[in-house]
Amino acid sequence: MDYEIRKVTIDDYDSLLELWNSTEQSRRALNPVDDSREGIGKYLKRNPDTCFAAVKDGKIIGVILTGHDGRRAIIHHMCVHPDCRRMGIAAKLVSEAEEALKKEGINKIFGLVFKDNDGANAFWESQGYSLRTNLNYRNKSLNDGVPTGE
């Protein structure tokens, strides 16, 4: 499959939203504040060189949004359109993001995956991302519009 990898810009927002809505797992990871046009715009402004899209015939078929705090990186969104899976696109996006983060001096990356998303968990394991069982993930919403999760 011929496609290109390029950096994500805010002009891609509508296409990203369409992609994320193409799969149940990605839809349930979205929240109306942080994943709004404004929220993604802030994220991309802060992380202009670490977010990538796979594009085929002008259409985004995969995306990875990664950012960092100067010490560690987090993968916030990773999605490949269901019709384009098992073609190496996700692995290529991960590789691009990892290289970009290395250039910014980042040495460790983490990501969150729903426990019941067997396909994604297997993918991340295949990419060398280990499962941490000695930590509890905790969060607190500072905005009533952002759900706290299950």
List strands and helices in order, with pairings.
Blueprint: E1 4-7, H1 13-20, H2 24-29, H3 37-46, E2 51-56, E3 59-68, E4 72-80, H4 89-103, E5 108-111, H5 118-126
The Cα radius of gyration reads: 15 Å
The largest beta-sheet arranges its strands as: 1-2-3-4-5
Order of secondary-structure elements: EHHHEEEHEH
The portion of residues assigned to helices is 25-40%
Determine the strand fraction and express it as a percent band: 15-25%
Task: Examine the secondary-structure arrangement and name the CATH architecture.
Answer: 3-Layer(aba) Sandwich
Key structural traits:
32% helix, 22% strand, 5-stranded mixed sheet, single chain, 5 helices, 150 residues, alpha+beta, Aminopeptidase
Quick summary:
With 150 residues, the protein is an alpha+beta fold.
Overview of the molecule:
- With 150 residues, the chain is α+β, with helices and mostly antiparallel strands.
- It has one domain: Gcn5-related N-acetyltransferase (GNAT) (Aminopeptidase, 3-Layer(aba) Sandwich), CATH 3.40.630.
- It is built from five helices and five strands; from the N terminus they run E-H-H-H-E-E-E-H-E-H.
- It has helices at residues 13-20, 24-29, 37-46, 89-103, 118-126, and strands at 4-7, 51-56, 59-68, 72-80, 108-111.
